[in-house]
Write a structure and sequence with these properties.
Elements (H helix, E strand, L loop, with lengths): L2 H22 L2 E7 L3 H15 L2 E7 L1 H9 L6 E3 L4 H8 L9 E6 L1 E5 L20 E4 L5 H12 L3 H4 L3 E4 L2 H9 L5 E5 H4 E2 L2 E2 L3 E3 L9 E7 L7 H10 L2 H8 L6
Parallel strand pairs: 1-2, 1-3, 6-7, 6-8
Antiparallel strand pairs: 3-12, 4-12, 5-8, 5-11, 9-10
């Protein structure tokens, strides 16, 4: 066989393999808690690179996403910011039994877009010149509930009440601070890190004993039980490579 013909056979095999891989690639609709906006993009890119599968991501507060799923929203998997919502979906028959697992444990921070505004001990919360303090809706966003726990533990709930401005999700709370509409805000550590470092502004990380651990569970929904992309995403989230990636955003396993 000539070298030219051998090369043609080889290229034909590569193209056939590529076409076959593309033909079997699937897409999943994923509901994701707003605090996980940056990591899920990186995970989705890795999923596409390694399997050819793609995901369509919808971000929001855990409570609102749960309500949408209950009302029939066409999601294949749910990455929540707590353990309760995925467990309820499992108990209600909307999630695949046994598919639920903790993919991350989140951290709360007090953050300002202004350098040196937030001190290492969080004493800025007691300053007389403190402006608006942003936080997420505690009824639908676990990070908002954690913020209230911190303020209560510090004995500042009543003092700070007139200064509070509430976002519908942790994403909106972050936007309030980033845009300057709030002086400081309680947000997710993952929102202010880039490459494992603070990407701007100043922050204080409240001690863990001031709020309940923010364990975040993922669950495969019944609609996605036979969706290759959704199944592959759940598997990928458990991998050491992705757990390391998630850790770079300030999460713990």
């Amino acid at each position: 066989m000539s070298l030219t013909r051998h090369c043609l056979y080889f290229l034909s095999g590569v193209l056939a393999s590529a076409v076959s891989s593309h033909a079997t690639a699937a897409q999943a609709q994923i509901a994701v808690a707003a605090n996980f906006a940056q990591p899920i993009k990186a995970v989705a890119e890795l999923l596409n690179k390694t399997t050819g599968h793609t995901v369509q991501i919808t971000l929001g507060s855990t409570g609102k996403l749960y309500a949408q799923i209950k009302n029939g929203a066409p999601f294949d998997a749910f990455l929540a910011a707590n353990t309760e919502a995925p467990e309820r979906l499992e108990n209600e028959g909307l999630a695949l039994p046994g598919s639920r697992f903790t993919y991350a444990t989140g951290k709360l921070v007090l953050w300002s877009s202004r350098p040196d505004r937030v001190d290492p001990s969080g004493a800025v919360l007691k300053r007389p010149d403190l402006g608006k303090v942003a936080y997420a809706n505690p009824k639908t966003a676990p990070y908002g509930a954690a913020a209230l726990q911190v303020m209560d533990a510090l004995g500042l709930s009543a003092t700070l009440a007139p200064s509070l401005v509430m976002g519908e999700s942790i994403g909106q709370a972050y936007t309030f601070v980033y845009s300057g509409n709030a002086d400081v805000g309680f947000v997710a550590l993952s929102q202010v890190l880039e490459g494992g470092r603070l990407k701007g502004g100043s922050m204080w990380q409240p001690p863990q004993n001031l709020y309940a651990p923010i364990k975040q569970d993922a669950v495969l929904l019944q609609r996605g039980s036979d969706n290759p992309a959704a199944v592959a995403l759940m598997k990928l989230l458990k991998s050491p490579e992705v757990q390391t990636l998630i850790g770079a955003y300030g999460y713990e396993p």
